[in-house]
Fold this protein.
Amino acid sequence: MKIKTKPFISEDFSQASFAPYTRGYNAIPKSISFETNIDLDAIYILRSYTTEEIAALLKETASINNPNILLAVPITEINFIAVVRSIRTLFAVMDAKNEVPTKREARFTIQLSENGLATQEIYFAQLAQIDTVWCTNESVPKLKLILPHLPTPPIDAFYGSLLLTERTNHFMKNVSQKLFDN
Amino acid sequence: MKNDIVQKFFQPTPLKAWKQKVQYLLLGEDFEKTLVRKTSDQINVLPYYYSDKTQEKISVDQADHTKTAVYIDETNEYEANKKAIEALKLGVDKVFFSLHHPLVNVDRLVENIYCPIYLQCFFLDVHFLKKVELHKHVTILIDPLGKISRTGDWFTNESLDVNSAKNLLKNKVVECCVNLSVFQNAGANIPQQLAYSLSQLAWYMSRFPSINKINYIVSHNTDVLLEVAKVKSLKALHESFCAENKIDIAYSLIQQKSSLNLRVFPSRINLSLESIEHLIGFSSGVDTICSMPNHFSFFEEDAHYTKQSIELLTNTSSQKIPSHDGVLAVEKIALQLSEKSLSIFNEISKGGGYLKQLLKGTIQHKIQENYQSIAANYNELNETEVEHKLVKTYPFSKFQKNFTLVKPITPKKQSELLEQPIWEKIYNSEK
């Protein structure tokens, strides 16, 4: 008996061998950390998935060495992974374009929602290699109990999904137009 | 070109360059030991999945839309009906009743329920059909092989059970089940779950040649990528098996809560773990996801979990959970799982098929071996989480003397070796 297969086709830029670590990901998968104190004055906030807001965030952080970005957006959807992927890549593009000698590194934070879906949000945070989960002191022990049940996924783990490719291409094209077309 | 900007500023970096960078970052640590995750499912999860031109993916049909269902194991028809109606008000799409005897008053059970209803029957009774005939939205699910696997005995005996099932399956409202959940709950790894299910399909196909639909009952661990790959692999194995044998058997995947993942100390994380299982169901495209059964809350203060489980399920259903279809890591793992399952399936076929291997005890032994390795490696117990609470249900499998035809495949918990002695210490001292 033979398993039915078909060729794997992806039009993603990863297909052209732009490895994740050249696009702002860690070279090796890292686990997320929980933080209870976040200095809101020292963090840049993304509040929606509009290309205008993403472009504004990138412009605002252009001269910051290693900016902290809080993603105050819905987490359990494809846009979340696609936007983090696009921001990381555009960061690297901006550095290459501006010939920045040392690569800047953005740190991403999410805040868990209180609708009972926090565990699912942690999984999406892992998929997008988010650095920090902002939570309350009371929730840390429970989250630490849950984390061993969610093994750290591979880097850029959603690569290959046609849905992700389509959304990444959408953000890359529209945000870079707003950033570079003047 | 869509990514002109990327092409302009990045040099392609081959896999070799990534590996060199990783070796540098590991400061002499071993790559395999540090970064490759070895699972009890005989799959090594890599830190990075890289595609090449020869990459193939499994080709399967996807469910159009995953539906939600309430799982009700209440014995009283009035109470069961009331619970179903309450769950429908919370937004579930279907109702799933587990029935343990044919004397149930079906009219009362399904009164005022107009959505699709499944009756998972733990009995075979041709006369029971008459009670259901008038209710066109009701489907009866039967599983004679599941019965002997779970309990160690046939309903009556092999020949009578086959005859009863054959007669029942002549009616369109009756469908057959293959229950992977029995294997998963007992601690079988994924290739075993898939291979044993495929062997059951082969047995059903040989006994009931006119069978036209199979309902696979699945349950999951919390390793998302592996479990999504399992679903993909199950679909592929079913479709390939049917293509190979030139038959057309439709299939549907019904997801039920795993008991293997349940924790007793602390039980408060069980809903969080269940929400990962829901995520797996929506991401992998199963057809129906059931809520947590009532008997999975062990303490009086956890009784509200059943309702919360339904709310969690409908809440997840309203999110935009993306399908994992095409994700390279899932595609590669699904192919590996399919190959490993096929190899076990071929061994079982050479050994005379599922039933023969079950009667010999080989399948039970293999599952037990895998369970022992899972349980031995499970070390997540925080002593501060152990507290005395009012007990609702005994959480572990009760030891029974083995007077059955074969050794049954009983559900377990991965935390059992740690938690059961503590439970006995706390609650037996009260007796």
